[in-house]
Design a protein that fits this description.
Largest sheet: 5 strands, mixed
Helix content: 40-55%
Shape: globular
Radius of gyration: 29 Å
Strand order of the largest sheet: 3-2-1-4-5
Structural class: alpha/beta
Number of helices: 16
């Protein structure tokens, strides 16, 4: 086979060790290093001494990242490949043999590189992902508060939509302080809830025990702490996202996508769409499109597969919001697919359409223009007319169509 990389190295990275196989014209060199920073610096010095200019490794969890950071700083050409794409023939497997196999594949250009964003984008991605984790943790704490209220027979959710809103928080803090008078609590509601005062007093009638007050106090304190952490992360993400303000404003025009969702999407895919040849490649990387599984002329399961779970979950959440936007193309797409494909598949199809829209907005720098809810009716106008006419003729009618003025 043709040699593509004359001086290259393959790394088999583990938690405590890194096995390296360098292939150079002088011969094959194999060494094993530790995973500490001094050991990795020794690896960098060894590769520089051999004149290696290209290094390949597999994406082994989180362990490849410190190795990648040090080699990136030393100026090596780096390639991180999916472990599923580079499996060797089973049998007699060792770390050294894995490194030799990776180096051999890389030498002949048989490895497909994974998408690795720049260092600044990786740092922004870490912040955005941690913020999303905290948001999810806050939601779990709110669910625990709701569960505690149900155990105390407080039916607050039946009257107000947000238990942690202004009114709900006032009621909860009063319960923590020992105020259990339903009429008094209902009287402290804002003007909007005064018309539901009787229902509110009835819903607030329950039995809050001492241990429930203790739990409620700690839950509210924890929620306040998480909200402060989220606010600090919002400020830091906004500071680091300042170069992407134009892209964030462009994505913010799409139904279902707000600023926070736009920051999460840009942190995962970046703004340079030249990395992906087309929107189909981007959708395949994000796993928001049907998979290819065909054999013997028969198509098997078209499961989308596992991809970037952070991006996929954000797109699905945005798709759900977009389907709730009136006079939106995405709403029409969802209700067109949901009756025959199911709600979940229709929601994933909307996420796919959202990602394709994002791709072209970022690639071309265009302004979003919604196609409207009548897009599919106008596109399939002739088919809809024929179907309607045939249905009426089967019922015994004679149909003559005339366009309206």
């Amino acid at each position: 086979m043709r040699v593509v990389n004359e001086r290259c190295c393959g790394l088999d990275v583990h938690k405590s060790s890194v096995s390296a196989c360098a292939l150079v014209p002088e011969g094959k060199q194999v060494r094993t290093f530790g995973a500490t920073t001094p050991q990795l610096q020794a690896l960098v010095a060894w590769l520089q001494e051999l004149g290696v200019d290209s290094v390949a490794m597999e994406s082994s969890g989180i362990y490849w990242r410190p190795v990648f950071n040090l080699l990136e700083g030393a100026g090596f050409e780096l390639l991180v490949a999916n472990a599923r794409h580079m499996k060797a023939v089973p049998g007699r497997k060792t770390d050294v043999k894995d490194a030799e196999w990776i180096a051999d594949l890389h030498r002949h250009g048989l490895l497909k590189p994974s998408f690795i964003p720049s260092r600044s984008e990786r740092e922004l991605r870490d912040l955005v992902r941690y913020r999303r984790t905290l948001i999810e943790e806050r939601a779990h704490e709110v669910q625990r508060v709701q569960k505690l209220l149900k155990a105390a027979n407080i039916k607050l959710e039946d009257v107000i939509s947000d238990v942690m809103g202004v009114n709900g928080r006032r009621f909860l803090e009063a319960m923590v302080d020992g105020d259990f008078d339903p009429e008094h609590l209902a009287g402290t509601a804002t003007h909007g809830l005064q018309r539901k005062r009787e229902r509110l007093a009835e819903a607030l009638t329950g039995s809050v025990g001492e241990h429930q007050r203790f739990l409620l106090r700690h839950l509210l304190s924890h929620i306040d702490f998480i909200e402060r952490q989220i606010a600090e992360l919002d400020a830091e993400v906004a500071r680091r996202s300042h170069p992407f303000e134009a892209a964030i404003a462009s994505l913010d025009q799409i139904p279902g996508i707000g600023r926070r969702a736009a920051e999460e999407i840009l942190a995962e895919i970046g703004t340079d769409m030249s990395r992906f040849p087309s929107h189909r490649h981007l959708a395949s990387w994000a796993k928001v499109c049907p998979g290819n599984n065909q054999s013997g002329g028969r198509r098997r399961s078209g499961s989308s597969g596992k991809g970037n779970r952070w991006l996929k979950s954000t797109l699905v959440d945005c798709a759900w919001c977009a389907t709730r936007t009136k006079q939106s193309y995405f709403r029409a797409l969802y209700y067109r697919l949901a009756p025959r494909r199911g709600k979940k598949r229709a929601q994933l199809a909307v996420a796919h359409s959202l990602l394709a829209t994002i791709y072209y907005l970022l690639r071309d720098g265009t302004v979003y223009q919604d196609l409207g809810t009548a897009y599919f009716d106008q596109r399939d106008k002739a088919f809809i007319e024929r179907r309607a006419v045939r249905s009426l003729e089967r019922l015994g009618y004679r149909v003559h169509l005339e366009g309206a003025a």
